[in-house]
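Q: Could you fold this chain for me?
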Amino acid sequence: MACGFLAIVEASAGMFERAVIFLFFAVVCDTLDGRTARLLKATSQFGAELDSLSDAVSFGVAPAILVYLAALHRLGAVGQAAVVAYLLCAALRLARFNVDSGPLAKATFQGVPTPAAAGYMMTFVMLRGQMSAWLMTVCVVTVALLMVSTLKVPKLGTHGLPGWLILLEGLIFLVFLAHPSMLTWHIWNGWNWFLVGVNYIRLGRRGSPLQPTGKSDVMVGK
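A: Sure. Below is the predicted structure, expressed as structure tokens.
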């Protein structure tokens, strides 16, 4: 939560790259907090609620403000609508995650997790000089819809894909941050979709239902 707040502060001062760094550290904290709690046998409902509040700030509010101030403010009401859509979808994604206790939830995420969505928002900011504000608006809305979709995004660890994949994911993202370009972005994005494809194959082999509820690929609640 502190990293998300500091990202907002830096974005407000026009220090967008520094804001991205704070959001990256927020993602790192989110990756480690659950594992640390389980290792220390300190898991609790209080911790789960605090985690969701932190996610709402760091991966909902902060990325929306960052993208708006970095680029989408130039589009006025259209830019505002895009980041508000992102914020609301992030809140819906977190709420659905908190109440999702079905068997499929143990094997995979449904919808793009908010840390991953925030990662995409960070890349848009880093590439703001190489893409138009209108294209960025489309990308932001797309990420928002993917958060509330039923896309099966892999979990990493005991019930999902091997944990070392998250290390490779982080390394590729660090390469992008060091050398932000459309080439490094496509490599990172391509790896993400490769993992999604592997996840669908894994779920199919295990006989997991790929469409547990509803007929649409986009759903706002469960």
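A (continued): DSSP finds eight helices and two strands in the chain.
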